[in-house]
Amino acid sequence: MIEFRDVSKVYDHNGNELRAVDHVTLKVDKGEIFGVIGFSGAGKSTLVRMVNQLEKPTEGNILVEGEDLTKLSKPEVRRVRKRIGMIFQHFNLLESKTVRHNVGFPLALVGTPKRVIQKRVTEILEFVGLEDKADQYPEELSGGQKQRVGIARALATSPDILLCDEATSALDPETTKSILQLLKRVRDEYNLTILMITHEMNVIKEVCDKVAVMEKGAVIEQGTIFELFSNPQHQTTQNFIRSVIESDIPASILRGIEKRGAGRHIYRVTFVNETAGEPILSQVSKRFDVDVNVLFGQITELQGIPFGHLVVEIQGEDKEIVKAIDHIQSAVTVQEVYSHAG
Ligand SMILES: Nc1ncnc2c1ncn2[C@@H]1O[C@H](COP(=O)(O)OP(=O)(O)OP(=O)(O)O)[C@@H](O)[C@H]1O
């Protein structure tokens, strides 16, 4: 649906080259919610702005449903652009126009008959839950309501793709959740493909199917949410994940372990599927001559499926511990076990 093939964008910065996007290759499939995460300045906005040609790549190709944007004429680019909606962090609404006029604006711009606009605006405002706000002005709305107007406006022209540029960054956590749920409905009911950029891992965790992590213009890691959360390779990815799922052993527990001497066997067990939370660890202690103590644990949900870590101590003879660990590793529920004798 959207494909970046070895795309770079180089700006001139006081006579020096600034590589805002550096050889990025990504593929976003139809109907997918694809997140791009990175710190400020990583190149996310530049990347997403190239999809609707607000920026042109310096090198590489960008394909939208097989059409190479870098090879299209201006009228052809305008045609493709019509299939792409965008929402922004600060909503970008017209303050002097009512909600109804804001939402209908993109349709009016292309000369759509008034009657058609009216029907479409009513339909879309109902979808985003703002039918009773049609005649109000943006300043009379909360942040969440303003973003709903932004979403309605983006959907007015029935696009196939929705680009979201930090769409929830100005909102509180509860409102963020409701906007993300709305975006999920947009994908499910209108079958849109959504490309969203954010610096918040909770946004990615909440709605995305796939994610790419950007740093200094480059994509340093990408995959499904499960792949990234269960086996993050890069330090930056690990830090982002740590911001939403605490996997470190809390300091108080660590202090307790240290006090009671070295030579203990501490493991981190990661569960990544529907059997997370099942008593595999208690099975192990029944089957082998070991005791398993859970020191710390956190189970959360990824795409509606439980995901979590347990930090456990296994006590017993070395050979029994090896057997127990083998058993845990052979079970489909365990993705990663690391030992830390300490
Ligand atoms: N039009 C421009 N001219 C020159 N440099 C630019 C331009 N746009 C972006 N940059 C630079 O490109 C780099 C990437 O910026 P970009 O806005 O894409 O990052 P970002 O990850 O979206 O960060 P933020 O969340 O802060 O917007 C930055 O160093 C930025 O200063």
From TrEMBL:
InterPro entries recorded: AAA+_ATPase, ABC_transporter-like_ATP-bd, ABC_transporter-like_CS, ACT-like_dom_sf, MetN_ABC, MetN_ABC_transporter-like, NIL_domain, P-loop_NTPase
Keywords: Amino-acid transport, ATP-binding, Cell membrane, Membrane, Nucleotide-binding, Translocase, Transport
Top-rank lineage group of the source organism: Bacteria
MF-aspect GO terms: ATP binding; ATP hydrolysis activity
Biological processes annotated in GO: amino acid transport
Any single Pfam family the record assigns to this protein: ABC_tran
One Gene Ontology CC term in the entry: plasma membrane
Sequence ranges assigned to domain ABC transporter in this UniProt record: 2-241
Cleaved signal peptide residues: none
Xref: SUPFAM superfamilies: ACT-like, P-loop containing nucleoside triphosphate hydrolases
Entries under PROSITE patterns matching the protein: ABC_TRANSPORTER_1, ABC_TRANSPORTER_2
CDD domains for this protein: ABC_MetN_methionine_transporter (cd03258)
PANTHER family: AMINO ACID IMPORT ATP-BINDING PROTEIN, METHIONINE IMPORT ATP-BINDING PROTEIN METN
Family per record: Belongs to the ABC transporter superfamily.
Annotated protein name in UniProt: Methionine ABC transporter ATP-binding protein
